[in-house]
Amino acid sequence: TDFLQRIHDDSAKKIKDLFNEATDKEKNPKGSVIFIDEIDSFGATRNEFNPKEKEILIALLAALDGIKTKQNIIDGKPPVVIIAATNRFEILDSASIRPGRFDYLVKIDLPDLNMRQAILKSYAQGKNFNFDFLQLAQETPGMSAAQLKAIIEEAAFLNLTKNPNNQQSPIDMHTIIEAKDNCLLGIRKKDQTYDLETKEIIATHQAAKLIITQIKKSHFLSSVSLIPRESDKFLFLAPQPNSSYLTFQDDLFQRITV
């Protein structure tokens, strides 16, 4: 990302300098690691209409061709390990991810129940939480580590606003639920209310969705609210965790129904 944001006319030179520094045995006698975050920002399929991104990608591919990580390890030489991360693997240029440039492709799936519980505990360290982490992990299927972190931080913030004179006040499940609703449905619109008729219409619609999810067992209810919110959302349904890596026709029909 820095290449696109900060480099203008000397993109190729900057990439070459980076790899030269990484392969310098005097500076890095034990080897080195280059981590490229958001490689899709310039490593996507070559676009003839964006010469700057194309120039950066070509320079990167040339630099990668000069790295012999496996051979260096076999020969006992200091290795240079290249790691890249992306959330948009499907748009990467096929030439950039072929063997010899990136030998291993590792998919990081969304955390399962045990991982969510561990992530929540990790982000809650140093904070006075008084609730069941397992329960919260069970109520957040399909959520990423970033979403879980946001819930913990929002809960700590809400607790501080409620108890400004007692920063060590325990954060209970009620505050966690409020934080979860804020993160998944949006913050509350304090200057807006619904009349009774509007509430009945919204409640009927959301109740119908909930009934279908219970019958189909296709989604898990993470949050529901009739409070006006900035996102205009009232319901957050997460797909039920699938023990199989395959998605079947019935699964798709159940999701469409909801």
Automatic annotation (TrEMBL):
It holds the Pfam family AAA. GO terms for biological process: protein catabolic process; proteolysis. Residues 3-109 form the ATPase AAA-type core domain. Keywords: Hydrolase, Protease. GO terms for cellular component: plasma membrane. InterPro entries: ATPase_AAA_core (IPR003959), P-loop_NTPase (IPR027417). One of its GO terms (molecular function) is ATP binding. PANTHER family: ATP-DEPENDENT ZINC METALLOPROTEASE YME1L1, METALLOPROTEASE M41 FTSH. This is ATP-dependent Zn protease.
